[in-house]
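Aim 2 progress update. The chain analyzed this quarter is reproduced below.
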Amino acid sequence: MFIIDRYDKALKKVSKKSKKVVRRKSNQQSKSRKSVFIRFLFWFIPGLGIGLFVPWYFYLQFLVNSLFVEYHWSIPSSIYARELSLYDGKNISQAEIKHELKQLGYKKVASPNEIGEYALYNNHFEIFSKGFRFLDKTEKPARVGFDVKKGSITGMNKPIARLEPLLIGHFYSSQFENRQPIPLNQIPNTMVKGLQAIEDRSFKHHGGVDLLGILRAVVKNLFAGKVVQGGSTITQQLVKNRLHYRAKSWIRKANEAVAALMLERKLDKGQILETYFNEIYWGQKGSIAIHGVKQAAQFYFSKQPKQLSIAEQALLIGIVKGPSWYHPVKQKTRATKRRNVVLNAWYETSVITKKQWQQAKNTSIKVQLNTEFANQQYQDFTDLVKQQLSQTFTNDNLNQQGLRIFTTLNPFVQSQLVKTLSTQTDKLAKGVQSSAVVSHAKTGEIMAIKGAKTKTSFYNRALLSKRQIGSLIKPFVYLAALEQLDDFNMDSMVNDSPLKIQTKRGEYWRPKNYDGKSMGLISANTALVKSRNQATVELGLQVGVKQFVNFLDRLGLNVNRSNHPSVFLGATELTPLEVTNLFIILASNAQQKQLLAIKYVTDNNNQLLGKLKKSNNLSLNSRSILSINAALHQVTMQGTAAKLSSNYGFENLYGKTGTTNQGKNSWYVGYDNNYLATFWVGKDNNTATNLTGSSGALVLWADWYQRISQP
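Predicted structure tokens:
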């Protein structure tokens, strides 16, 4: 027993030692594993941080460089109407001047003391002009006074004055952002300081992120129980706006903060403020987004930034917080309160004096939204402008490089044309459409275009719709005869009798007069005045079909190369624009053969890029032109357009009606010494209207002419 006992004790000792050894080894292994894990964490966590932070850092660096440092604004091209020059002896009506001032955003007052105001006392105008940077020089704001009597300016207080041209449209990029960047020195100092006073008072002292500002905002928001103040700096707001962040998150905030710190190292404070003023969103007009202080001043007040009053500046700075929420027209009360908050902050920080503060707070908000930003009234004309520019400038040039395109459009003439087509077309017949083109009778400068009876033309018929022109071609048949036939003049006799002309083997063409009758031998002048078909074809055959087509080519008209004699009666299709381009030869006494819509184009720095030249004179006999014009004057007195004198009392007019079979196309082209206008009426499906040139298009022409002739 003793031996066994000792053996058991020895065995237990060995067992205890083994367990200690095992335990010791286990502890050592555990410590080793912990050491490895700690070393893993020591290297992995920093590595992970570096792996995530470095790409993020360089990504933000890339964004800051590409979106700010190397960024190029996408600036839409601006399209302007013709400039309005005022001088003694200028023929213009009071109605046109008042319309122009209204379109330019001038305010009618008892006594004009500020830029952009005017007064009218009986026949006397007093205008405080806004000034403009023209190609030849910059016109400064000035007081202009003159009288308008019997459609003419007298008593000007200076030799000549120019009002700024009306901005009638833009060529936008796909983002539809309306922006015209300007340097910081063109922004009122009160706005520059005032922005900092209301948005970021520590702007000059922080490096992009204001930690104290964030703490103040947090404390105020906690005490208020809601968000009443933000902690974002101007730099952070700029970053947020350019990055187009919408969702609120800590990641977004972190991106803004780091990007703002980077941006402050890339740009100085002045550059950041300038970028902010040119970038920030100020409102919306239809699909057009208003960006930048220059466009905001134009949109809300029709002024340049430097011309804004203290109250107007404060309103703009105030609505930056929420252009829709503080809309000065739709939410006038709310916008007024916000403006006054801004004015209070400006007074507290000595941006403005007490007198300025009191005066501005007592000023009511007077906003008249500028319609130019989404105005479709001039879309048909800008279609033509783009068409004429397409051969010289690319879409990128037009949409992004801020070109300034100065055109020939007359806003008053255009407005009267729109009124005529929209109010009178449906009175002519059911389901008809209309279009028209107006140019200056001597220079060929296009004053107005309308492609539909509706205010917005979804299809520009003036440029795109080719329709048979009928009797409009007849004056050029007689002009060709005067130019090419020996011993022919408008007193020569032509035969207005039935004709049977073989066109193909076994096929004959028998032209008829509109009244179904024949007059026999008559003078060429009578044949043209009475628009006799048979006499015209008979004379045209003497000229020859081929020779007549070549003559039209010489005039710049490319017609269908047909050998059919129906070409003498207008069996060719033209647009209203092409018809007007043909008649400018007669209206200008052959001094002009091409219509013009663009005067010149400059870049964003006002450097001339191109100027359209007027075409050379045509080598036509001046006596031939005078003879045709004499006949076209008689057309308006005793011919197919006689109602212009008998019904409307118009004098000294020239014109020609045109009608195709069943009245599918009703045309009238008329002109005096100032205006040349082509009107068309018909149906888009080219079915009958039962209208003639006299009962359709001429009625519209007369209504429009009456409107522009009013004093």
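The chain has a mean pLDDT of 86. The longest strand covers residues 433-440. These observations will guide the mutagenesis experiments scheduled for the next reporting period.
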